[in-house]
Amino acid sequence: MQTDGDMRKKVKDALKKSAIYGEDFNLEEYGVATSDVQSAEDLKELNEEDQRTLLNVGFTPGEDNRSGSLIMVDNAITHTSLRDKEVVELMSLKDALKAHSWLKDYAWKLVKPDADKYTAMSYLQESDGYFIRAPAGKKSKMPVQTCLLIGSKQVSQTVHNIVIVEEGAELDVITGCSTKHGIEKGLHLGISEMYVKKGATLNFTMIHNWAEQIGVRPRTVVHVEEGGTYISNYVTLKPVKSIQSYPTVILEGKGAFARLNTIAVAHPGSELDLGSRVIFEAEGTSAELISRTITTGGVSIARGEMIGNANGAKGHLECHGLVLGGGTQRAIPILEANVEDIELSHEAAVGRIAREQIEYLMARGLSEEDAVGMIVRGFLDVGIQGIPDELRADIDETIAKIGENAI
Amino acid sequence: MLEINNLTVEVGGRRVLKGVDLHVEAGHTNVLFGPNGAGKSVLLMTLMGFSGYKVIEGEIIFKGEDITNLSVSQRAQMGMGIMSQRPPNLNGVKLHDLLDVIAEDLKETEELAESVGMMNFFERDINVGFSGGEIKRSELLQLSAQNPDFLLLDEPESGVDLASIELLGTTINKLLKKDCKCPGERCKHGKSALVITHTGQVLDYLETDRAYILCNGTVMCSGNPREMLTEIKEQGYEECIKCKLMEI
Lengths: 407, 248
Hints:
heterodimer; A: 2 domains; eleven-stranded mixed beta sheet; ten-stranded mixed beta sheet; 7 helices; globular; B: Rossmann fold; four-stranded antiparallel beta sheet; 12 strands; 36% helix; 29% strand; SUF_FeS_clus_asmbl_SufBD_sf (chain A); SUF_FeS_clus_asmbl_SufBD_core (chain A)
């Protein structure tokens, strides 16, 4: 990527700039992840362990029911495949920048390179990542799947993704983030810039499955034009050291809509600082932010923010947090109305599962563990589509364990 | 089937039931009458073992076993089931999620759901946004799927329109009779139940054996359900209290 000298200097200075929220990671403790990783043409030839890693974040190595697949290991794109070039475009961002001269106008336009040390690092590394684009009017029946893997110890992986859904198009993306077996410590810095154009729809599901010593700092901004729809599902149910993210959705066009679901479990030793922000910039825009988090001994912070700058905007924010066997739940809803004709509301509740609910199910013959499991499963179920059976089984197993440990 | 001896129960530090004695024989359906606040629902909740209902004294014998200290699950697994009056909302838990787990015969449950007009509720969160009548039908459907031997029915007809009372009444009757074809065999093959009713309307559809009147947390007297209902309708509960006082 071409970078302007002045900008580069400004961004270099930002390397010292701590983020507002979350543990401050010392970038110097981590080596830069390698860009030299062997490619994998046929995913079915991956060993069982690697296949399992992919499956557990919703990525099917068989590539059934997927319109395209991309894998990034450390800082290298190791696999790209595409079923139908007419319906969706998928390649590494570096290749895409070479192929489309116009794409530079989309890079680093929504996320500021000097926002904090993590954006700065990603910018200065000229990070690669995925580029996904649905051409105008195209509707892919199957989702695109991507997986970002940390494959080496004690490194920082820097990723830069751009997703563009052109006018009237529809795109589903399932993206998984994980570590290869045996990798404990690492840092994942991910920049994502998403553009949902007029009348387009983007369904974006992200599943995390990190390890106990991984720090995760995603920086995501989504721009939605008139009549566009952005739906995000953010799922992290496994132990991780720290995730701090605060994706922002700008509803720029009339009637644009966004729904962001966050489903998270903070295990002992994990700190999850998960926010979502919607800025209503046009008439008749609407949004729902839904956060369902559980702590089993870790720290869960749910920040939800709605900033209303346009008449006729409507937004609802829901933060529900369960405390199951210790830990901290903090819900921080923020509503801001800067015009008169606007409706923003929130409901937040943190605490244990009501005894009455558990016993109601026990009176039907369920054991206490099964009753808690059923309630937890219901609590976390926000109706995410397209999750492969293997991942669903893995999620069920995690929930069953939470049920057992909660007693 | 059920034997309650000298049961004293506290709720939130307040003594609500005082030395209650009550029996339900196998295959019998007994009725619990009493004014508001008498402790009828408290008795049913205590029998099911819900927390917050603290047994201070006495015992509950079910199928010959002392269940006073057993958990809610253990009682349910022994064959006890309840139709609650005000069940909690279970956000996110779909009615079919629960029915799938508890139904002995899912096909039979679906047929019943069809007949009580509950098929459209399978994908709904349990009790969330249900009307009074829908809660009754959902409770009955769950209870029927669970198929317990002993049913605790807390005012099955309250807040329900006349047509629905008939539907609920006949459905409960079918559930209680279950495999029993001949009236003479009810004690051997039918289910047992303890039913709370204020209006007595549900009794038009059930074969009942004995009624108890509960006032101020104490059983005042017992007898034939129809006779007692007529008496209560004419005289009210005050007569029962006076009568009891005279006894003492």
